[in-house]
Specification:
Two copies of one chain form a homodimer. Chain A is an alpha/beta fold. The first copy, chain A, is 28% helix and 23% strand.
Chain lengths: 543, 543
């Protein structure tokens, strides 16, 4: 027997309607690629989103069509989020920082019909255009006056001209909430990028879950500046959760240096921001160098990689900002966990509270997690046992666009995150390694990251990396790879001794190798695939 | 094209799983009907909810079956919420304060298979039992030691015995999220009570929407005491939103007097509570008489009827408690609006901020509202125009159980609330009247409530009521009915003069009648149907 409640689908276009109706004069402020500051309201944004929808329909775009965007955080990109998804098409955000061949692969794989491009990205698109197989029009996100000269882009359209004569009275259609709404490719370290295809339902449930007090805690009193780009998992959903609660939005455009971000925080009275650690490092450096303070910022979400402890304490003690450590991935829309201490934690000694804050946090309702061993057996949530982290929930992917990579789910519906983690009795998850980097020694697991962190504490070490190397008896044993600080000296024995009171005895590396540099990914992570390649023919002295 | 996200239904049983897993040691504290305080954790509650599920299955209960409860707010009632809905059956909460014949009607109409009854309500059930047509067992919500003696209830079962030997390892089934989960009858002033049949989906979306910062703002740091009964629209959803966020729950049992409630607030460090104005009046009286203060309470939700201005200011100024004025109805799960001022309102002069707080508030995303005139035309959201308030959304009813009352929806899917309201440009709704009480004079509407409030301000008036009376020229004109304070004197002319600078001239009542008492409903509202009956043969002097 079914309940007798209204069968109303959850649709993204309802968000902009809600915001315009109940928060009509709330502002959306953008630092434009054109250089100036643009400000308007949710009421204005609704009209222009409807004009975008009308323009798309007039260009023959149909439900299910993919529309690419190559754009920074700004109001036109925001309008596209609603205009594209609102007609039932798919908003495909593309990371302009990818290698050109990746962009070509992604646009062709997605079969994008149109590409909306910010003006400073048009020259790059011009070069790639001959390789795009399905793109009918490039749309320059500007007015005629700001269009770069001498572009050779056939069928180029200009955003402001495209929507200028449209009535802006579009009636959003209603359709199944499982309809695809947006597409974001993840670039793994191996293979081609794979597309995560979000639905209206998953996006809306994620918006509800992420606005909750213990997740991002967003309200009509929030002033939200997403530093995280709108091409990076939809700016962690903030362009959806913001209008859901009627928050003021501040879009920073292409300039994410400390000075630019700081200025917007202060002039727009920003209370909430979100981004990766690198951005916050730049901001802290800028503020420290210029002896600046933050007058309104209350919360900074740090995600993408782990928040360094010093960053958490500096934000709290010197700037009065609470860092919300968060974790997620493109396949999770992206929010998986956010770290809000519980009431009982607030009275902990400072170092214990910091240790808690360094964990990745607890999941909001909607994300379910478990950790499993090699055999898939669930491990206890005791904060000690670590295993492969599996997740499930209505905003977690069940497969990639066009079936790339096959069925990723395990154990009847669990998505393997590729992370190794602990979960403590209070539900706080902590990443201890990547699944492919953990060292499996005699049936037990050794965390490469824990070993690296321990080695990094040695004063002579500039950077440390740990990889597993084949061992006849133990399957794998850890090899510690060290890049010394300029002029610093340290021996293998000194390092092993240094580690001996920091990790279990059987975790101690079987050898230490010294290198001139440790390779990194484009986002600054240690490139362990390269290290494993470099040490392919290396043999452990214990082997 | 559909998105590629996991097709996981939203089910109520997931809430207790989430709470047990991520908030396992968070407490649920109950003042029992037995008289003592009971405390356990979400982890304990999960096991016992599973035992309830196992017991129901062993009694032959199947998906869709209705299971009645006649119980106060307590942990066993909480277990029933999850045990019953979690197997796909329907948790039918019954208001024990209804007239016996209404209870009989409701139990028979719902075709309840079992009745779970708190021990102090068993004698009443014993009397009605012969009239119940479908009830196979009454289950006394206690252990054998607390079972009242000399009850003559055939097939009586005892809750603790029923679940004692069950394993508590039940695997919750997964089913369609539109499955009916709970049932609550509304008792209008006319006709038989009608059943609102909630679904898992509507309940879960309501839980998300109601936990948002601008709705009830619930988190793992909240300690929630629902004074509003669990038989009254599921205690405004708090037994669902609480576990969703891992809040500590405090159930007050049958005693809702000022002293009992105050004691629990203090001993359990309650931060959040919700109830109707009468309860808060009793609490304020108790605290004032005993010179008590509140040490932890931050938010008090007032709903059910409008919050009196003095209550809002007293809570804020003398007790440091922010009153959240809320509005809803059974047909809305029940939350429609909550009044959280926006940032710009916080700097308003005190009287203007109070005026704002007296409005019923803004809707969370998920509730859409419009006001319409007699012809169904939408009226502007200018804070002045008032019209019939229509609502729609995924947690709003589309019809009553067994089709009673036909299709209530208007205009392609809007539910008529029966209220007349304004909506201001910031989205704040204010009830100005009931649709059936508004006076339609010459095509324009006069708010009976506004007139009553204006008349109530006269020092000689104990209570004022306004009804519309037939008029040959204007269709209807207002009649003011006055119950004077003991010994006070006031004439018709004095009252009309008193009103003349308070309302528009054409709103002034055509006559004033004095009565010895004004009739009320069981919940303390003016019984206008009775007044209209009393003045059936009355003719206006202007007619």
């Amino acid at each position: 027997m079914f309940g007798l409640m209204q069968d109303r689908p959850l649709l993204i276009q309802q968000l902009i309607e809600h915001a315009a109706q109940y928060h009509g004069d709330t502002e959306i402020v953008s630092r434009r690629v054109e250089g100036d500051i643009h400000r308007y309201t949710y009421r204005d944004a609704r009209v222009r989103a409807k004009k975008v929808a009308e323009a798309l329909v007039s260009l023959g775009i149909k439900t299910g069509d993919r529309i690419g965007t190559l754009a920074w955080n700004g109001y036109r990109h925001f309008e596209l989020y609603f205009g594209i998804s609102g007609i039932g098409a798919v908003c495909h955000t593309i990371n302009p920082r990818l290698f050109p061949e990746q962009i070509v692969y992604i646009v062709n794989h997605a079969e994008d019909q149109l590409l909306f491009v910010d003006i400073n990205l048009l020259p790059a698109v011009e070069k790639l255009l001959p390789e795009f197989k399905t793109v009918k029009h490039v749309v320059a996100m500007c007015d005629r006056a700001h269009l770069p000269k001498d572009l050779k882009i056939p069928n180029l359209l200009v955003y402001e001209e495209l929507i200028a004569d449209k009535p802006g009275t579009y009636e959003w259609p209603e359709f199944d909430e499982r309809t695809a709404s947006s597409l974001c490719y993840t670039s793994g370290t191996t293979g081609n990028p794979k597309g995560v295809l979000y639905s209206h339902r998953s996006t809306m449930l994620h918006a509800y879950g992420s606005a909750l007090p213990d997740t991002l805690g967003l309200s009509a009193r929030s002033v939200v500046l997403p530093v995280v780009p709108m091409f990076h998992v939809n700016a962690w959903g903030l362009p959806y959760s913001g209008p859901m609660v009627g928050a003021k939005l501040v879009f920073p455009g292409p300039h994410l240096d400390g000075k630019s971000v700081y200025e917007l925080f202060e002039t727009e009275k920003v209370t909430f921001t979100a981004g990766v650690p690198t951005v916050w490092l730049a901001l802290l450096n800028h503020m420290q160098a210029n002896k600046l303070k933050l007058s309104t910022l209350k919360y900074a979400v740090i995600g993408g990689s782990a928040a360094p402890p010093a960053m958490i304490t500096t934000f709290a003690k010197e700037y009065g900002v609470e860092v919300l450590h968060a974790w997620g991935m493109s396949e999770m829309s992206p929010l998986g966990t956010v770290n809000h201490p519980k009431e009982k934690h607030l009275s902990l000694p400072e170092d214990e509270l910091l240790a808690l804050r360094l964990k990745q946090g607890r999941p909001p309702f909607g994300v379910d997690m478990k950790i499993v061993d090699d055999a898939g057996k669930a491990l206890p949530h005791d904060g000690k046992a670590f295993g492969d982290l599996l997740v499930r929930g209505p905003w977690i992917t069940r497969g990639y666009f066009k079936g790339e990579g096959g069925d990723p789910l395990k154990d009847g519906g669990w998505f393997p995150t590729g992370d190794v983690a602990t979960i403590d009795p209070d539900g706080y998850m902590q990443i201890t390694d990547r699944s492919k980097d953990v060292i499996k020694s005699g049936g037990e697991w050794i965390s490469s990251i824990d070993l690296e962190n321990a080695a990094m504490a040695h004063p002579a070490v500039a950077e440390a990396a740990v990889i597993g190397v084949a061992h006849p008896k133990w399957d794998e044993r850890p090899l510690l790879i060290i890049h010394r600080k300029p002029g610093a000296e340290v021996t293998k024995d000194e390092l092993v001794k240094f580690l001996s009171d920091k990790v279990a005895k059987w975790w101690l590396p079987d050898d230490v190798q010294f290198v001139d540099a440790i390779p990194h990914t484009a986002t600054g992570k240690i490139l362990k695939t390269r290290l494993r390649e470099d040490f392919k023919n290396y043999k452990l002295p214990t082997a």
